[in-house]
Design a protein that fits this description.
Mean pLDDT: 91
Strand content: 15-25%
Number of helices: 30
Largest sheet: 4 strands, antiparallel
Shape: elongated
Low-confidence stretches: none
Structural class: alpha/beta
Distance between the termini: 65 Å
Length: 887
Amino acid sequence: MKSIDMLEKTFSPQDIEARLYAGWEESGAFAADPTRAAAPFTIMIPPPNVTGSLHMGHALTFTLQDTLIRWQRMRGRDALWQPGTDHAGIATQMVVERLLAGEGTERRALGRETFLDRVWQWKAESGGTITRQLRRLGASLDWPRERFTMDDGLSRAVREVFVTLHRQGLIYRDRRLVNWDPKFQSAISDLEVESREIKGSLWHIRYPLADDPTRFLVVATTRPETRLGDTAVAVHPEDARYTDLIGRSVVLPLVGRAIPIVADSYSDPEKGTGAVKITPAHDFNDFEVGRRHDLPMPSVLDREGRVTLAEIATDSAFVHSLQGVDRFEARRRIVAELETLGLLERIEPHTHQVPHGDRSGVPIEPLLTVQWYCNAGELAKAAIASVEDGRTKFVPQQWENTFFAWMRDIQPWCISRQLWWGHRIPAWYGPDGEVFVAHDANEAEQAAEKHYGKQVALTRDEDVLDTWFSSALWPFSTLGWPQQTPELARYYPGDVLVTGFDIIFFWVARMMMMGLHFMGEVPFRHVYIHGLVRDERGQKMSKSKGNVMDPLELIDRFGADALRFAICALTGPGRDIKLGPSRVESYRSFVTKLWNAARFCEMNGIAPDPDFDPARATLPLTRRILAEASAAVAQANAALEAYRFDEYAAACYRFTWNTFCDWFLELAKPALQEAEVKRTAAHVLGLLLRLLHPVMPFVTEELWDHLGYGAPCSLIRAPWPATFEVPGADAARAELDWVVRLVGEVRTVRAEMNVPPSLRAPVLLKDAAPESIARGGRWLEAIGRLARASDFAPLAGEVPAGSAQAVLDEATIVLPLAGLIDLVAERARLEKERAKAQKEAEQVARKLDNADFVARAAPEVVEETRERLESARAEVARLEAALARIG
RNA sequence: GGGCGCGUAGCUCAGCGGGAGAGCACCACCUUGACACGGUGGGGGUCACAGGUUCAAUCCCUGUCGCGCCCA
């Protein structure tokens, strides 16, 4: 019965991954349980955009999170990995708008309600892509708890937060310059603006003095099209060239308006001509200058980036011809007109930073509008303090600097967006513009009635909130807040937030501000910041470069375990990871190695024995592998506790391949019939599967189930291995190390002397201490097999002529190979060895000759150095003797 | 311009005050009782450069150069 059920010769991930995942999910293995006595362990997923599909960045972050969650779950913690998706305002609205465009319509034609119905319909049909793909990766999220930032509960949390912050004066309306995205026709926050270097021009324009039209003030600008809205020219107060002009006026060319020359230190005498036009409604710096000098602030561009003359007066036919013209066309026409009029002194090529919308890619336009703002400066105080006093720690810690730098200079957060898809701002306006912020229309109407003394018709604010406003609430809104649920009490604050540095400001900082304000406690204890996934040459992945890797394709080719292991192995602290298919392929070899080791154990009839007690092991072989296994567990714990995924992976890799396969199984082969060896092998393999499960869940679960360690799909819940004491571990290690070194020395000599492996030759020990002889005697079979020895014995008489030799501690290994080896080559080999030992001896001797070293270095260091010198000298002596014997 | 990080074997990266490491790649040999997605052995590095601190520096400090990222 068992024989037809043996493990397949090769591991086929595609056959088992879906089955195992379904098995875990259906059995509730991912479920947190607030009623359990165990301590909770919480990770909040950074909610991927509902429009998203799994990319390598997701594969990285979710592999790390799943590894941590599975590890803590096995450790007995009540693990909650909270799943969900983000409504992603602009991204989702764009997706649906594109669909509509394909149907020959657009959102305004549909109207707001119909459009939103359409978005929800899209979400129902296509919004589950990313969550399906997360399952392919093996992510053990608690799916029944899945949330969406626009679901009813989270929307309620958003309204509650908005209303509360408004009442506290921390949310307010203000008319000021915002970053206006002309493509989306919406305000965006400072964070959504990225500056791009643009090769443009600096136009030097003559502004005639009002009281002396023969004199000009030359003004340099990169944006001639906004000059219709100039309301001053600024010069530096200490700029001697212009002192006499301060307080006088210039006539704004084309427009004909007289505007003052003001002194303001914003003007940089080194830049351009030192005289700068001031357009308060279209430039952030100019806005400040305008405020300082109480200047008018006419807007001359509209929400689509076209010229509007509504706020300026002019008789110029040319200027009137610009009405409704796009900003870049207006620039061309104005420059041409100035040139015609002889007012353009020169054009200087000029490279400068131009703000662009990060999603739209178009230059943003500072625009004077009324928007909703959040007083981030006030909320930031508690968040800064929580990092200063260590309630939240960043890993790697250097990211705290980045966090502090931004938080200490944080600007008001513009939270309103002129979009339709999102949380509509819970504010209503009376006929006179009075604002009523309330949880719902009913409450707003009551407030209005109280205010006006009668019922009035209210209109609701058209705008929605910045998507990040709702994600800022994620750590508590997903747990039921504002209701006081058992989940909220138990799983807040979370243990660790795992994410990339690119959203420290967008998301991490804002969660901390909101969490501290509304929950009175940090949302998470640790913030683990990982790098970016790049291609194997270190290039950022991008569609235009064509170097984008698809994690699903890698999973199809190599299996989820190989991809996950590659990610962990390459994730060092504070580094980007360079990943290519060849890396994943090479870690697939590791998966295969594990599979084959398990097959070998199965073929030898190893069987799990729950009563096995490592403390009762008697053999050096079993004691050593058990001690190594315990050490591997300790290493894995230390690595994972420090978020050193690379070290965790390396410890697993080393222990599995090097320690377990290369030495333990090889040495155990003939002994696998012995009960203790067999039981130990079974025990250690079981430990290994548990140790590897967090990073390689599929293959380990399959082996665990198949080999009978537990019921189907039970490894995910198996207890994480504990470290344990092994009696006589040191002696066992010493003995096995000696065997390993003996075999290694013999192999090296044979390989270098080109002795064919098929030829077995005696291994003799000269000058060996009795305990070495005894050790060898206990390992005759292994030495024979692994060192290709036909015999192993102490050397009684003289070293036979034509032998190869090698030094092992006090003894010399002698391989009588007369006629089979080239003595000239053997002499050269020994001389090289001697030179190496001699160099070591000289280096160490020089150190000990230094009186300062002996006097000042730590005594144990000096002692260790003396021992090193002694053994190096002994080795030189033995190699000398070996050389002398060759003659 | 300000800040952060990185320069260690061909590649990717650990290490970080006292003997230069791993994986992959490479070369040679090997189908030895799971595994050629394998086994065994081997070659390969003035630890970017220059100063300083120290008995001792790849490691700490300062500077220079090169690369990357963030902010203005």
